[in-house]
Amino acid sequence: MGADGRIAVISGASAGVGRATAREFARKGYHVALMSRGQAGLEAAAQEARAEGVSAMSLQVDVSDAEAVRAALDRVETGMGPVDVWVNCAFATVIAPFMDVEPEEYHRVTDVCYHGYVHGTRAALQRMLPRDRGVIVQVGSALAYRGIALQAAYCGAKHAIRGFTDSVRAELIHRGSNVRVTEVHLPAVNTPQFTWARARLDGHRPRPVAPVYQPEVASQAIVWAAEHPRRRRYWVGISTAATVLGQRFAPRLVDWQQGITGRRSQTRDAPPPARDNLFRPLDDTRDFGAHGEFDDESRESSLLQELSQRRRTAALLGAAGFAAGAAGFAAAHSIRRRP
Fold this sequence. Notes:
The protein has helices spanning 16-27, 39-50, 66-79, 103-131, 152-175, 193-196, 215-227, 238-249, 251-261, 303-309, 311-337, and strands at 7-11, 31-36, 56-60, 85-88, 94-95, 135-141, 180-186, 188-189, 198-199, 205-206, 212-213, 233-235, 267-268, 298-299. It is of the alpha/beta class. The strands form 4 sheets. A 7-stranded parallel sheet has the order 3-2-1-4-6-7-12, sandwiched between helices. A 3-stranded parallel sheet has the order 8-11-14. It has a two-stranded parallel sheet with strand order 5-9.
């Protein structure tokens, strides 16, 4: 049955990172259950998975509805079998100054990006805990560590997911459970987000903060994390590492940098989207796929992720490099000391 008959559920699977992740799980032989609001995108994603020779189930679900999420999982386990991997990847945002975001818009972003993860995690644990096995992957962002201008609602939700996940992980350890929870934090990714996100940018169109990566870079990291869940979290892309470390060691400098460049780095000279998907899906009748409008500048690999997947090799190379450097320094020092 491929991948030993393992089953993965992916939310936000109709487009972007979720879409690429569904395809990557299918390529690895997993049977997949795909959750999203947009029917056309879901069906296209399911067809891509089936083309890899696996079973695929599409489920039109709004993850902000806890009961709908539980009902969808019931359908998956009845129709396909016990779920092995659950990936929380649903997404919604408003790209605008905080004071230009209405309360109901802020609530909507929080309901999808935070409460959607809570509902998904709870539904998955209700099934995984009695079996004492399973993996939950929380798809996060560099913005889970550092808030940026124009994205207060999204950044707040991503920060909340980290705190929530730490609590859940501690409780699993207390129970002695073999269920694992891991996080994958992403850089800017070339997805349809910037085609259909609600934006108020004085007539400009949003764009991702460079450098931008293709969604396949993210999907490969997510599947790797699902299969290697003992690490608490993974960072994808050197820009993610730089963001996390910059916030840790020089937060005031990052405040200043964001104040100067935060708006300019997220806008382009093009009219804003005429429609958005905040409350209604745009891929209900049209498939947008995984990629956005930035193929020409998007990176197709992440050295940081490759090193992360080859930690032993990287450690050996680092040790060898250190030893060679130390030997060279010692030799040079010895030569300088000769009379």
